Here is the input.
Amino acid sequence: MTWNERRWDLYAPFYDRFIAFTPQRQRSLALADIQPGNRVLIDGCGTGLDIPLLPPGIEIDAVDLSSRMIHQARLKSTGLNVRLQTMDAQNLQFPDASFDVVILHLIIAIVPDPLRALQEAVRVLKPNGRIALFDKYYDGPGQPRLIRRILNPLMRAVATDINTRTLDLARQAGLRVTHEETALLAGLFRLATLQRQTQSPSSSA
Ligand SMILES: C[S@@+](CC[C@H](N)C(=O)[O-])C[C@H]1O[C@@H](n2cnc3c(N)ncnc32)[C@H](O)[C@@H]1O
Here is the structure.
């Protein structure tokens, strides 16, 4: 088991004591415009903090690499229409074009290969499907500020990269950024809505 897998198993019982971000999650989900009857994937679902925030009348799949995170998410899913599975976001076990919406909350900055995870999310999205993104990423011109570059090795060891150029990677993966805004801590956390383009990434400008 790699450190990436082991650390999330270790954090699982305590995660909800430190992490909530409920208003930011609600904002991200509202922007994704989830409609009755939609099929929704929570990719890297963690302890399932997004599950109670989703509207009724939809079909939910939720996956995470950590079985202990999945256990916590199961506790929040009692009586709800949620299918939970242990799965790598970089190698999703779903057919192409399965979902109307993929939720990527605090996951792309975590995985070893963020482009691959975004490409997988695009693959399982239906044409014109939406991604709800809430994460730490860098979207400025040039290099991130010195403090961000100094802190990043420590942040990566504990949890997360703070300088991933997630929107650039999303465009490479064939996504269009339809909305983007600061979410928290002077823009360290941001949120965006991304849409799968109907044409292939290589044919887009
Ligand atoms: C910061 S937590 C975010 C959890 C949840 N999305 C949230 O918003 O609270 C990151 C999660 O990503 C999961 N994870 C890490 N690498 C993964 C991978 N390759 N595939 C799927 N999940 C992964 C971890 O187990 C952990 O639950």
Notes: The chain has one domain: 3-195. The two ends are 40 Å apart (CA to CA). The chain has a mean pLDDT of 91.
